[in-house]
Amino acid sequence: MEIVLNHDVFPIAELWKEKVTKNHGFDFHTESLQEVISFGEAKYEKGTNPYNDSADQILKFIALKKDRGDGVHLEKFASKNAISNLLKSSRGFTVAFSMHSDKPESILKNALKSDLIKKLILCSHELHIVGVKS
């Protein structure tokens, strides 16, 4: 995201978030050129393309207002405008997942047809779908 979209990339959440068992929140955060903070969730599964798992986790975190909770910590990394935009509910999300296919375009097309991705579109100012070929 840094190279292709010119996002500012913040330190991974495990370095600055609370240490609790299970999945305590978003995996990573970036800021776009439009000063929108993107909350990212990455999923890896051997032999599958877990974009639905990533999208589902993001939707659960939204319901728990984890993006708002992270905002307090992100003030140390993000621009003032990005924090202001977040407070106005202008936020982005990044669905990141492992891709196991020789046809990555078809995986990404299928991801865009997913009901969970469609739900995310409705609550996102920016939405990024990132498949990492493994």
Proportion of helical residues:
25-40%
- Cα Rg: 14 Å
Number of domains: 1
Q: Provide the structure class.
A: alpha/beta
Order of helices and strands: HEEEHHHEHHE
Unreliable runs: none
Give a short account of the largest sheet: 5 strands, mixed
Overall geometry comes to globular
Descriptive overview:
- There is one protein chain.
- By secondary structure, this protein is an alpha/beta fold.
- It has one domain (about 1-134).
- It is about 40% helix and about 20% strand.
- The protein is built from 6 helices and 5 strands, in the order H-E-E-E-H-H-H-E-H-H-E.
- It has helices spanning about 1-5, 50-65, 65-75, 80-85, 105-115, 115-120; strands at about 10, 30, 35-45, 90-100, 125-134.
- It has a 5-stranded mixed beta sheet.
- Helix 2 (about 50-65) packs parallel to helix 6.
- The longest helix is centred in the middle third of the chain and has 13 residues, at about 50-65.
- The two termini are about 15 Å apart.
